[in-house]
Amino acid sequence: NAGVTQTPKFQVLKTGQSMTLQCAQDMNHNSMYWYRQDPGMGLRLIYYSASEGTTDKGEVPNGYNVSRLNKREFSLRLESAAPSQTSVYFCASSGSGSGNTIYFGEGSWLTVV
Amino acid sequence: GENVEQHPSTLSVQEGDSAVIKCTYSDSASNYFPWYKQELGKRPQLIIDIRSNVGEKKDQRIAVTLNKTAKHFSLHITETQPEDSAVYFCAARPKAAGNKLTFGGGTRVLVKP
Predict the structure, then answer these.
(1) Which residues of A touch B93 (CB under 8 A)?
(2) Which residue among A91, B19, B76, B110 sits deepest, i.e. has the most Cβ atoms within 10 Å of its Cβ?
(3) Which residues, listed in sequence order, are joined to residue A57 by a DSSP beta bridge?
């Protein structure tokens, strides 16, 4: 039982390049999330998927797209990377409903130069 | 939407002393308040949570208190140990937000031996 697995762990991109962060969970959770973490700003929600086939914008969705490929997988795409997207990205998952614990992946360190 | 403020941003304590972190939230409909601990380079992990129908919850050396009237909640760590050194995040979830959390900016706790 690996929990939440995300790849890649580290990536350097040039401005304007595109890339996709992959995430998979093996806990049979309905809900999945993508957060970004910047110094002093906590964790901010980029996109959220309550269940397979649904996605919803979070606090900071601009510049990102997501795909909930199936119940297990939730990917985050940067179509044209910008230096402001340099951050640590965390995928997470939880059961449905309020009060379910959110479990995080190990994080992906992304630098855009 | 919900707004969560967390204080202090850094906290240095002597081993064995207590540490207190405070958070305020803006949405009176929030009903779930988890605390996450993040060690350097690691993922955030849930350490304790409290629901709006409870005023206090304890788990060994950590406790959380909630004041719904004042819209603030606090994390208390007693008898601090070096392994308590980490960044701590509070979060709040409005009832209407599904399972989406809004995080505070984090508190870096350093426990000095």
Answers:
(1) 98-99
(2) A91
(3) A47
